[in-house]
Amino acid sequence: MSQVGVVIPAWNEEHDIRPVLETVGPVEWLAKIVVIDDGSTDNTLHVARDCAQNFSRMAVEHLPDNQGKAAAMLAGMRALPKEIDTVIFIDADLIGLTADHLVRLYSPIKEKQCEMCVAIFKDGYWRTDYSQRYAPNLNGQRCLPREAAEGAIGPLADSGYGVEIGLTLYARRKKWRIQYIPWEGMTHDMKENKLGWREGYRIRAMMYRQILATWSRQWWQARREQWTALRDLGA
Q1: Distance between CA 153 and CA 169 in Å, rounded?
Q2: What residue numbers bound the domain in which 192 lies?
Q3: Alpha helix (H) ranges present in 8-162?
Q4: With CB atoms 3.0 to 4.6 Å apart as the test, which of 32, 90, 118, 186 could cross-link to 5 if both were Cys?
Q5: Beta-carbon count within 10 A of 49 CB
Q6: In this structure, is the dihedral angle defined by the CA atoms of residues 101, 49, 56 and 116, taken in order, positive or negative?
């Protein structure tokens, strides 16, 4: 039987992480839940450890320095027990998360209908609805086989917020089947709400730079692979 683990990377999410952990913690079919505190400077680590005391399958790992989202996701996977063969990634600032959302994200993987599932927020908040409609591949809520996740995210460890677009481009190169699963009533706390407009926009700009840099690297890698394949055919 497949065993499912959850990885939750968190950076300065003291105000949002508790409801997420209190939703995920009681879900009995999850074999392990790993929270990665990515060098937070607020009380995220304290809140996560406090929640983990209530759930035997929840563990909290602390990275002393902020290494970026991709590195935190990779650290979370490596902290899962070896018997875990499927991994779900979720963000620490979700609003409206339910156990049913997790079931819907995992079911297509369980039934081997695809190699990766990506959640799409719907009817939660107009700004996130709009961004999800036009940029669904930036969503961090995903489910995929652990082996595939490690192969994809390992080379992306330094990509920060670019990990989602990098993971999608990797999946396309490998010709994975991808399913997009609507998550009704879901949104996340906007950075501008959490950090204020000035700091929120600064972090958002950094996020978009990392996304663009990852997309560019992945695009050139795909072109090189195509050129190599064509050269080998002509040899």
Answers
A1: 11
A2: 4-234
A3: 17-24, 44-52, 69-79, 99-110, 126-134, 146-153
A4: 32
A5: 15
A6: positive
Record the tokens describing residue 26, joined without a space: 């009681």
CA of 24: how far to CAs of 27, 151, 231, in Å? 6, 26, 49
Total number of domains in the chain: 1
| Pair 72, 12: CB distance under 8 Å | no
pLDDT value at residue 2: 80
Q: Do residues 31 and 7 touch, judged by C-beta distance below 8 A?
A: no
- What's the pLDDT at 190? 63
List the structure tokens of 72. 């935190």
pLDDT of residue 138: 72
Residue 80's CATH number: 3.90.550.10
Question: Tokens in use for 86?
Answer: 């499927």
* Alpha carbon distance 151, 159 (integer Å): 15
pLDDT tens per residue, range 176-219: 999 999 999 988 876 666 766 576 556 556 666 765 766 677 66
- Lowest average pLDDT, out of 53-62, 90-99, 157-166, goes to 157-166
Per-residue pLDDT of 122-172, as tens digits, reads: 887 667 766 767 667 678 899 999 999 998 888 877 876 778 888 888 888
76: how many CB neighbours lie within 10 A of its CB?
26
